[in-house]
């Protein structure tokens, strides 16, 4: 034990590791699956993009502000505990948001628990034959069965964003979005168009005769419980979606913003507290490896919550989508994290450093072309990464992937980053920082291109190992470049600005744009666009970087030794160097 209990470094590091692990478990319960839950509520891609973009925008500017206030008023521990406990209630508010079609959720749960005919996972609709009104006949039975508009394509029509292309001679599949055609062409399905003659005496409803969606038999898909596709009139689903959309969207927006206001400051406040605690006793070298525990918690948490959600299914409630289990797990782990937060190391002294560190970091970026180039790169990384964070699970679900397969994809990327970490120094030394950034951008572009060609429920798994480079090595190179270009005392504020403002701003803009692009052109086109943008910026980045003047750091110890040897014969020249003079005076005083 340390003589001073405040500086018990082994205990502080142990609590910090546990805190990072529990927070990783907590974030893994909801963060990767949040957009999937919004899809289960019935929201289309543009609305989900707006929700996620607003969430990232709030986090980018609210977290630094709260961290500044907590440091100024010495309320860091209160903010940590309040954030963890407040997020428990805020996450449960998201569960209270009503879905667009509550009856659809209850019927899905009844079908899954009753062992009915198997079908696609929640939110996935089978390929359907869409027939114009003039070519199809009215079903004599009122309320004729049809697939609910639950998946992205269906909710797109319900939300008014999807525009069906014109008829072509290639059959009914030509009228579907490209990602649905590709998914339906490769899945083992049996489609059958049901054509019935017009029955006299049946009054035709123009809304009900707009489109006719035909049921399709689906086999069991790995990774999820088979569901029987509930039936409902297309016109009724359309009217219900248009009526319930504003309420569902506004309540989702309010709950997500409130939730983000409570959770966003947690990570930055905890990092600042731990760094200052260790910096006081010159132990910041141990701080650099604590992030590994957070990744371990994320990897374990994603797999654990996915397995739990698949096992419980609709056991807890039949009035909410099955994704509500993720929020219940999040609330439980947040409560445990608050207990760990009570013992989290927080320094009790006031730091005597000049304020306005963010302003200094911003002025430093404006005066260095290398930092400007790096900031644009980080912003573009955030914009393209948002397409993966928001809609990759949608794309996987369209190809039959269950939540367990999705969690394996996330865990593979995180574990690859952990395994690559021992090679960090060698990688940066062999390729240089610029080369590592270029390699990371290339791997991220390759992942996006691969995602656009998914063909099966498992096909995403092999490419996930590249996440170790496109996420881990890329950010290591960015951090090393920031440390090299920053002035003394601005490394951490500069790094926080790159992570928060530039990367978070990129995530926000990419989310706003990605939802609309994915809806109108399909998710494969969205990933193609991200891949092309990254490759074009990579060529421009390398071209500009090669034309910038090369600046070298001055090694003051070598310079001092050289100047001392060169001026050894001239006492007058040596005395002009104040540093040499001060060292000689100190040496003479010690000798005397």
Biggest sheet record: 2 strands, antiparallel
- CATH homolog superfamily of the domain at 355-549: MFS general substrate transporter like domains
Determine the N-to-C terminus distance: 40 Å
- General shape: globular
Rounded radius of gyration (Å): 28 Å
What is the helix fraction of residues, given as a range? 55-70%
CATH class of the domain at 355-549: Mainly Alpha
Structural class: mainly alpha
List how many beta strands DSSP finds: 2
Strand content: under 5%
CATH fold title of the domain at 355-549? Growth Hormone, Chain: A
Query: Helix and strand succession?
Result: HHHHHHHEEHHHHHHHHHHHHHH
Low-confidence stretches: 113-241, 554-559, 567-575
Major sheet: arrangement of strands = 1-2
- Please name the CATH architecture of the domain at 355-549: Up-down Bundle
Average pLDDT over all residues: 75
Total of helices = 21
């Amino acid at each position: 034990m340390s003589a001073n209990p405040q500086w018990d470094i082994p205990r502080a590091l142990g609590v910090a590791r546990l805190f990072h692990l529990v927070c990783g478990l907590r974030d893994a319960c909801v963060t990767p699956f949040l957009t999937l839950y919004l899809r289960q509520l019935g929201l289309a891609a543009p609305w989900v993009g707006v929700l996620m973009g607003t969430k990232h925008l709030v986090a980018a500017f609210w977290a630094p502000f709260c961290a500044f206030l907590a440091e100024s008023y010495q309320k860091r521990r209160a903010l940590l505990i309040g954030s963890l406990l407040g997020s428990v209630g805020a996450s449960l508010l998201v569960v209270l948001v009503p879905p667009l079609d509550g009856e659809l959720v209850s019927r899905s749960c009844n079908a899954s628990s009753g062992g009915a005919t198997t079908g696609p996972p929640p939110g996935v609709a089978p390929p359907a034959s869409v027939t114009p009104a003039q070519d199809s006949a009215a079903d004599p039975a009122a309320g004729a069965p049809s697939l609910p508009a639950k998946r992205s394509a269906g909710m797109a029509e319900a939300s008014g964003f999807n525009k069906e292309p014109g008829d072509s001679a290639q059959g009914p599949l030509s009228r579907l979005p490209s990602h649905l055609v590709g998914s339906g062409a490769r899945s083992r399905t049996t489609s059958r168009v049901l054509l019935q003659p017009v029955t006299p005496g049946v009054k035709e409803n123009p809304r009900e005769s707009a489109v006719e969606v035909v049921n399709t038999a689906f086999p069991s898909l790995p990774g999820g419980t088979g569901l029987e596709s509930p039936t409902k009139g297309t016109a009724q689903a359309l009217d219900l979606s248009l009526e319930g959309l504003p309420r569902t969207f506004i309540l989702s927006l309010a709950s997500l913003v409130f939730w983000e206001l409570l959770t966003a400051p947690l990570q930055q406040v905890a990092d600042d507290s731990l760094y200052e605690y260790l910096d006081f006793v010159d132990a910041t070298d141990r701080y650099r490896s604590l992030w590994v525990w957070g990744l371990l918690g994320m990897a374990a948490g994603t797999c654990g919550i996915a397995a739990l959600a698949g096992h419980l299914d609709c056991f807890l409630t039949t009035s909410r989508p099955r994704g509500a289990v993720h929020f219940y797990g999040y609330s439980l782990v947040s409560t445990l994290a608050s207990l760990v937060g009570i013992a989290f190391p927080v320094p009790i002294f006031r730091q005597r450093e000049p304020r306005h560190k963010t302003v200094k970091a911003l002025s430093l970026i404006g005066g260095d072309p290398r930092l400007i180039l790096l900031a644009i790169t980080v912003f573009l990384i955030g914009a393209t990464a948002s397409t993966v964070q928001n809609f990759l699970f949608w794309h996987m679900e369209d190809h039959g992937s269950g939540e367990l397969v999705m969690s394996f994809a996330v865990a593979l990327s995180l574990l690859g980053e952990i395994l690559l970490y021992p090679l960090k120094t060698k990688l940066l030394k062999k390729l240089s920082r610029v080369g590592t950034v270029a390699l990371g951008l290339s791997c991220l572009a390759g992942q996006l291109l691969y995602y656009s060609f998914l063909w099966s429920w498992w096909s995403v798994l092999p490419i996930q190992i590249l996440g170790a480079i496109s996420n881990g090595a890329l950010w290591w190179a960015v951090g090393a470049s920031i440390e090299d270009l920053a002035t003394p005392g601005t490394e951490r504020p500069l790094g926080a600005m790159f992570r928060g403002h530039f990367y978070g701003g990129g995530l926000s803009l990419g989310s706003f744009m990605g939802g609309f692009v994915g809806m109108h052109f399909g998710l494969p086109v969205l990933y193609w666009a991200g891949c092309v943008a990254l490759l074009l910026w990579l060529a421009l980045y390398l071209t500009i970087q090669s034309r910038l003047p090369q600046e070298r750091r001055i090694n003051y110890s070598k310079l001092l030794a050289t100047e001392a040897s060169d001026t050894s014969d001239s006492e007058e020249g040596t005395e002009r160097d104040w540093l040499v003079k001060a060292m000689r005076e100190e040496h003479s005083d010690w000798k005397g």
